[in-house]
TrEMBL record:
Biased amino acid composition, Low complexity: 309-337
Species per Swiss-Prot/TrEMBL record: Streptomyces cavernicola
Any Pfam family the entry gives: Pkinase
Signal peptide: none
SMART domains: S_TKc
UniProt-annotated stretches for the region Disordered: 308-337, 726-750
Protein name per Swiss-Prot or TrEMBL: Bifunctional serine/threonine-protein kinase/ABC transporter substrate-binding protein
Protein kinase domain segment(s): 16-275
Binding site for ATP: 44
Length: 750
């Protein structure tokens, strides 16, 4: 997304008028600029303090030289540069589309035919890079921009000539963990050649296919270790026994690209040849929803104030406030709507002619979101988006019952400004179905806010739809922090992040259990949740200056006995398992067989019959950290429990009271902002929710206004006793707002 220029930003550089900010980093700022000829460009401007460093100027000059030598339709070309000017700058072709990383996070993995086409075109780009005598060294999703006519490989900031000594310190790992080759991970700079880029391309294509990096996430050291020693996680790609030959062929190719031995990897031209059957750009290499995302993003990014005033040869009209004849009169920063539309049409046509050439034709840039007029008052509603029929249906039904109770209690009030209905959408626990479930609730203009979805995977599938409509989504169970680091306005976390649960487990160990050398086992089967837990534990242990023994196991292992045995031989005095219920059964049995009686901790993923029944007596004594309470053991929830039992003739399920609190938070804001018997619009409600301070049954609810993160970060403990969970209350002193979790968790391990 483009952001406005700041007061200290230049208005022009290198003959480019600067229109907005595209991003900023440690090297400088990237602006959206327009040349005197009217062409748009991404203009990288170096920070002044770096411009004075001779070594940095040498690196920047090398980047310019490297980028200019690469000629490929799939690499963003250099359109201008000033490496020796007082403020060094570099301009490249502007691509009005998201990065691959942004799109996968927003819309989920790409289909096989898209990944094959992506791989073919990026292999061609790498062939051009290598033909120029260069190694890119940072092929990752953030460095691939998507356009309807094909991808663009960008950022040659750490590229270097093959065989040339890099201007970096000995042993320094340059690049992005998770998308590095083994030779990069071990800083074997003398072995960095074209095969290293092929390995990174394999990582990138695996990510595009599955939505996850093939060597997991977490601390940089852990990712580098797995890159060197572990096999890649390619689950979900091929392996169909011939049912999908394209996916099977893609998996086989990626397995070769990710070979540990550089000599065993295919060359880019071989990759091109093997993917030659992929869809050509003109035939629609991207799925329709991604094309719409690109078109919508393009329109938003290009509808900038001030562009209209620089259009060449515009007739002067003294009655037109956008064209003052008085040279001393201020230039208007407001662009007439018609001007934006006409300019948008020109810019989208001028960006490779791609958007109008793709399936939807001219309708793409003119696409409308429909009528935003409010519905009739008898249609106002809260929505519940949940798994009501799949593997998580018990939690989903608890969500629905908690919200239903809150809505019914509200409707029983005599002072209500308007009645509320309840609308539900069932995703069955499927990320694919989550998108269609979200669309149903979004299209119902009476729905003002949604509680759910009930899993992190379904949040990934739905968040883009809710964000586009600015329909607030209150998350009660999902707690992965991947939403927090983005500029989303719709999601609101009504629970502590998973990272905070890891912090709470560490506080329990160090301050309550008084341990001195805990073992920490991360099972990648449940990544990214497992690595977020691990990161929280590790950060807190470092803060507490406590040694710990970490281990990471690849996804899908049924028997974790060897890993547990190694940790026991290392003399750990306690044990934390970050993984799933089935894996915990293996861990618990191994610990019990070894007679280990130290503290054993897990997370709410283990609060399930699969662990309690599967581990049997071996589960006794385990302590589980959760984000939810047992309302029947919480004095403050006594009235809720009585009302719930009267209404549903049952005890409240897990997350029912948390969903009840979330619904009442939304109702409270709706009532406070109601005017003339009508509630606020969705977008306004999203703002009001982030600014709210609300006392729920379980805890106070307040949020970070920038990212929707829950500020309180309370974590709770449950102990396994007699094959059941006994609620013990909050972790004493376990508020990470006073410890390492107060740092930005989105930067953890990066």
């Amino acid at each position: 997304m483009t952001e406005p220029l700041l007061p200290g930003d230049p208005s022009a550089i290198g003959g480019h008028r600067l229109l907005g900010r595209l991003g900023a980093g440690g090297m400088g700022v990237v602006y959206l600029g327009r040349s005197a000829a009217g062409a748009l460009a991404a203009v990288k401007v170096v920070l002044p303090e770096l411009a004075d460093e001779p070594d940095f100027r040498a690196r920047f000059r090398r980047e310019v030289e490297a980028a200019r030598r690469v000629v490929s339709p799939w690499a963003a070309p250099v359109t201008g540069a000033g490496p020796d000017e007082p403020t060094p700058w570099l301009a490249t072709e502007f691509v009005p589309g998201p990065s691959l990383g942004e799109e996968v996070r927003r819309s989920g993995p790409l289909p096989t035919h898209s990944v094959r086409a992506l791989g073919r075109m990026l292999a061609a780009a790498l062939r051009a890079v290598h033909a120029a005598g260069l190694v890119h060294r940072d092929v990752k999703p953030a460095n691939v921009l998507l356009a309807v006519d094909g991808p663009r490989l960008i950022d040659f900031g750490i590229a270097r000539s093959a065989g040339r000594t890099a201007l970096t310190a000995t042993g320094l790992v340059a690049g992005t963990p998770g998308f590095l080759s083994p030779e990069q991970a071990e800083a074997r700079t003398g072995q960095l050649g074209p095969p290293s880029d092929v390995f990174s391309l394999g990582c990138l294509l695996a990510y595009a296919s599955t939505g996850r990096a093939p060597f997991g996430e977490g601390a940089a050291e852990a990712m580098l270790y797995r890159t060197v020693h572990d096999e890649p996680d390619l689950a979900g790609i091929g392996g169909t026994g011939g049912a999908d030959p394209d996916a099977d062929a893609l998996r086989a190719l990626l397995t070769e690209c990710l070979a540990k031995d550089p000599a065993a990897r295919p060359a880019p031209e071989q990759i091109e040849s093997r993917l030659a059957g992929a869809d050509e750009p003109g035939g629609g290499w991207l799925p329709d929803h991604v094309v719409r995302d690109i078109a919508d993003r393009s329109a938003r990014m290009l509808a900038l104030p001030g562009i209209e005033a620089t259009l060449a040869d515009r007739p002067t009209d003294p009655t037109d406030p956008a064209n003052p004849t008085d040279p001393t009169a201020p230039t208007s920063t407001a662009v007439p709507a018609a001007g934006v539309a006409s300019r948008r049409r020109f810019l989208l046509l001028g960006s490779g002619g791609a958007l109008l050439a793709a399936g939807g034709g001219a309708a793409l840039w003119a696409w409308s979101r429909g009528d935003d007029s409010p519905p009739d008052a008898d249609r106002w509603a809260l929505g519940v988006h949940a798994d009501l029929s799949g593997p998580g249906k018990s939690d989903g039904r608890a969500h629905e019952q908690g919200v239903r109770l809150a809505v019914e209690q509200y409707n029983a009030r005599r002072d209500k400004p308007f009645p509320l209905d309840l609308r539900t959408a069932d995703d069955g626990g499927s990320e694919r179905r989550a998108r269609s479930a979200a669309q149903r609730l979004v299209q119902d203009r009476g729905v003002l806010a949604v509680v759910g979805p009930t899993s992190d995977a379904c949040v990934d599938g739905a968040v883009g739809t809710y964000e586009e409509a600015l329909l607030p989504m209150l998350l009660v169970k999902p707690g992965a922090f991947r939403l927090v680091g983005r500029r989303y306005r719709a999601p609101l976390h009504c629970r502590p992040l998973v990272y905070a649960l890891g912090f709470g487990l560490a506080i329990q160990l160090t301050r309550q259990e008084k341990v001195s050398y805990p073992g920490l086992l991360q099972d990648r089967t449940t990544d990214p949740v497992a690595w977020e837990i691990t990161q929280g534990v590790a950060d807190a242990m470092r803060k507490e200056k406590t040694r710990f023994h970490p281990r990471v196991v690849p996804a899908g292992l049924d028997d974790l006995g060897p890993q547990v045995g190694e940790m026991l031989r290392a003399k750990v005095d306690s044990f934390v398992y970050a993984g799933h219920a089935e894996g915990a059964v293996s861990v618990a049995r191994k610990l019990a067989d070894a007679g280990f009686d130290g503290p054993r901790l897990g997370t709410e993923e283990l609060a399930d019959a699969a662990f309690l029944d599967g581990a049997g007596e071996a589960a006794e004594g385990w302590l589980l950290g959760t984000s939810y309470v047992d309302p029947e053991r919480l004095p403050e929830a006594a009235e809720f429990v009585r009302a719930f039992r009267r209404r549903f003739d049952a005890s409240p399920g897990r997350y029912a009271v948390e969903a009840y609190d979330a619904a009442n938070l939304a109702i409270d804001r709706l009532v406070r902002a109601a005017r003339d018997g009508r509630p606020p619009e969705r977008a306004r409600l999203a703002e009001l929710l982030r600014a709210a301070e609300f006392r729920g049954v379980t805890k106070p609810l307040s949020f970070n206004r920038d990212n929707g993160r829950y500020e309180g970060e309370l974590c709770y403990r449950h102990r396994v006793e007699n094959s059941k969970l006994r609620f013990l209350g909050p972790v004493p002193g376990g508020d990470p707002a006073k410890g390492p979790a107060n740092d930005d968790p989105t930067k953890a391990g990066r």
